[in-house]
């Protein structure tokens, strides 16, 4: 998996969520380009949705929640989204950022620092993430549903 393939996969996830959201909120749209606050905006509700895709949680048993990148706050620390849609190989989870933070706190999960590729240019930056057991994460979600992985491949 490369940065470019991860980006393309993430965009397919965003389109999947947008398609689901548009059923109820037809004015919803995907933010083009980079937006720290959210990936999808729903004008009818005045809210944003952050979409996260995870292709390896089925192997690790964890979901990864980023809180800093390159030494700067990011992810859960900077989101303005009302909802996060977290997509794994087999499931889609709907969760609020407050519930993610509650899960981290309740379970005494400490952030881990890893190196991550930066924008596909063979540069690496430090990234701080929380690794949460998927079953634990699921307990804090508002809704979960099974997914057909092939829809995103």
As residue ranges, the low-confidence spans are none
What is the tally of helical segments? 4
Listing every helix as H and every strand as E from the N terminus to the C terminus, the arrangement reads HEEEHEEEEHEEHE
- Strand fraction equals 35-45%
Q: Which structural class do the helices and strands define?
A: alpha+beta
Nutshell version of this structure?
It is built from four helices and ten strands; from the N terminus they run H-E-E-E-H-E-E-E-E-H-E-E-H-E.
Tell me what you see in this structure.
By secondary structure, the chain is of the alpha+beta class. 27% of the residues lie in helices and 35% in strands. It has 4 helices and 10 strands. It has helices at 3-24, 57-60, 97-106, 134-139, and strands spanning 29-30, 40-42, 47-53, 62-69, 72-73, 83-87, 91-95, 112-118, 123-133, 143-146. The strands form 2 sheets. A 6-stranded mixed sheet has the order 1-2-3-6-7-10. The protein starts with a helix and ends in a 7-residue tail after the last strand. The model has no long low-confidence stretch (mean pLDDT 89).
Features:
globular, 27% helix, six-stranded mixed sheet, 35% strand, single chain, 4 helices, alpha+beta, 153 residues
Give the secondary structure arrangement, pairings included.
Blueprint: H1 3-24, E1 29-30, E2 40-42, E3 47-53, H2 57-60, E4 62-69, E5 72-73, E6 83-87, E7 91-95, H3 97-106, E8 112-118, E9 123-133, H4 134-139, E10 143-146
Parallel strand pairs: 3-6
Antiparallel strand pairs: 1-2, 2-3, 4-5, 4-9, 6-7, 7-10, 8-9
